[in-house]
Amino acid sequence: MRGDATAGVADANERFYHAFRTADAEAMRRVWGVGDHVQCLHPGSACISGADQVRESWDIVFSTMPPGAGMDVSAEQVRVHAADGWGFVTCVEKVNSDEGVGMLAATNVFEVQGGEWKIIHHHAHGLQGML
């Protein structure tokens, strides 16, 4: 069972980053869970709580991008930890932009909702020093 949970969390994490890379607002809405416990901390922002508010925050992030453009972001140093019905991922987000390469530490928390793995918490912040 643990292997299935680990694979499910890893797959859900990849769906999250795919939606992020492609700036696909609908795909991003589908990867997020529901509930008041859903939270997101974008770099430099306060904690956004509640599923509707989190989804709206991604709409804002994507609205800053040119139409059809995505973001060159990848997850590296991915570590998945999971058990029955819950799991989390720690990773380093590598973001390539015209200004250079940025590195963010990220934690993504998942739970099973309606039989599917959904992200319920994302926290990314800038890295200083060691990797």
Structure described in brief:
The chain has 131 residues and is an alpha+beta fold. The protein has helices at residues 2-22, 25-31, 51-63, and strands at residues 39-41, 48-49, 72-83, 86-97, 100-113, 116-126. It is built from three helices and six strands.
Can you tell me about this structure?
By secondary structure, the protein is α+β, with helices and mostly antiparallel strands. 31% of the residues lie in helices and 41% in strands. The chain is built from 3 helices and 6 strands. Helix 1 (2-22) packs antiparallel against helix 2. It is globular and about 40 Å long.
Please describe the structure with a list of short key phrases separated by commas or semicolons:
single chain, 3 helices, alpha+beta, 131 residues, 6-stranded mixed sheet
